[in-house]
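Thread: "does anyone have the structure for this chain?"

Original post by V.I.:
We have the sequence but no experimental structure in hand. Need at least a predicted one for the grant figures.
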Amino acid sequence: MSDFYQNGVITNFHNLTGRSVEALEKDLVRFSRKRKMGLILPSLFSELEGPALSHIVDELAKVPYLAEIVIGLDRADRSQFLHAREFFSRLPQRHRILWNDGPRLKALDAELDKEGLSPAQPGKGRNVWFCTGYTLASDKSSCVALHDCDIVTYERGMLARLLYPLANPGFQYEFCKGFYARVADNKLNGRVGRLLVGPLLRSLQQVYGHSDYLEYLSSFRYPLSGEFAMRTHVLNGIKIPGDWGLEIGVLSEIYRNYTTRQSCQVEIADNYDHKHQPLAEEDGTGGLLRMSNDIVQSLLRKMATMGVNITSDSFRVLKATYYRNALDMMEIYNHEATMNGLKFDQHTEEAAVEMFTQAILDAGQSFIERPNEKPFIPSWSRVQSAFPDILQRIYQAVEDDNSGDV
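Reply from O.Q.:
Generated one for you, tokens below.
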């Protein structure tokens, strides 16, 4: 049983009654006559070889209200793309795969790159960006959801609840974010959200003063969730980061372009589990270390655009403030775990806090040393001003890849 409080600046939708997925889908089928719905799935080819994505596809095959599914496929050669076409062919809905490493999309990407309009680095942000471009070009949906392809606890009710606030013609929300608990293997997960983002948002308010933007971010139960949905026209005007700051970057763009009354969040699952990242890879980079660095820089860039003076001195204060807040929060989660009979490893939790503290220092240094860095991928409205036919060309390239020889 969920709580029912509305104690932030955005609307919360709770799972108060455990309403069946069949009842939700019946409403959504009716809503789809007025508001068509789509889904974006950013995927690595390696995820086709794991158990999570195959189960996700089986669940999506039962969804009766989707007008289109757009799949972004990264790190795939020709034979792997052909395998992907077969893999996803069991979806009864209209679906298209963006072969991001294929010659057609790479040629378009090279044209964009000459004008400085291409994503600077490979990754989820670039994948999502091209998928949103195709979604705009296809024009098959008026609201579109996005979720990851590594959710091992997936069931189609997650998608139904995520889309419901946008699809209901009686509601006027532009953006919806999913939230859930992160518990698996008898322990708390979600370290970046629990031990970095939450304490950091509080610390930023303490060091730099009250901010409506930080209050907005703090209203989200799980700001790092990869499950969100928006009205399709929103895709045209937002700039997203190409790195691990994607989720925070999307929230920041929604804040910039829309009022808080147009945003909501919905409880989409009692529990949720997906592929876990290590603290860092063997070479000392990547993993949660890279993720946390990108997230912190995304927050700093947004605050700087709002006139906040971020200096080396203030960063030393921020680091100390964060560390104390994070340790206090860790103690609260220790009590939470104890009361719920969960395991809690204080050593690994505190090691994560220490790593996040270093990531904050590293991110601050990078931000100060490279103030002119352009981490955001251009909006599609800007790209279309330089290449008026770009969406039509992306659409045709994807159609050719999916229906013809490659």
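V.I.: this helps a lot. DSSP finds 14 helices and twelve strands in the chain.
O.Q.: and The CA atoms of residues 297 and 367 lie 7 Å apart.
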